[in-house]
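Reopening this one. Same input as before:
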Amino acid sequence: MQKTHSGNKRPFLFSVFCSPKFFSLFPFLSQFSKTLNFFGFPFCFINRSSSMANSNLPRRIIKETQRLLSEPAPGISASPSEDNMRYFNVMILGPTQSPYEGGVFKLELFLPEEYPMAAPKVRFLTKIYHPNIDKLGRICLDILKDKWSPALQIRTVLLSIQALLSAPNPDDPLSENIAKHWKTNEAEAVETGMDPFICKWCMMTGANDCPLEITFYAM
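Same output, byte for byte:
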């Protein structure tokens, strides 16, 4: 929540722009708000507080979701599906100075009924050349397995995946062939990781499933 100089109330225009009625009148702006928020601008997503309040979601999931929407981590967008508030559409920007810089990667995240006693289920939907991610998008990350703790959050998981893009670990691979490539010729492996799946351009669209339409190409 943004603060004014006089207290904790939102500025009038901010309240208007963040109201569901405003977006119902101008639906194309909902995509604009998602895109601005994805790139770090302090503009709101469509307000889904009422949807969450009317659901049977545990309070913890509601609080985590509200924070993800109001305070997105840099380079990460995560928003729940309107059909299932336990299912999140995720977009992660390739970190700077990493093999994936310039790429935009789509993931799906699902919170099982046992959450937070059980880890979220996460996988890449965008193809990626990475020793710790297989062809099905499954991720080799300890906090998604035996190192999971109820003290961790969705935000922690997404930041850890973002960090994995910055520092691939071929010593604990999910893809043996890619890990071998990384170890025998890291420069070539890094170049391979960069070339095929780099984002050529990102455009605002009316798509319902994610904030951006991504076009990938092989260089």
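So the earlier flakiness isn't reproducible anymore. For the record, The chain has one domain: 20-216.
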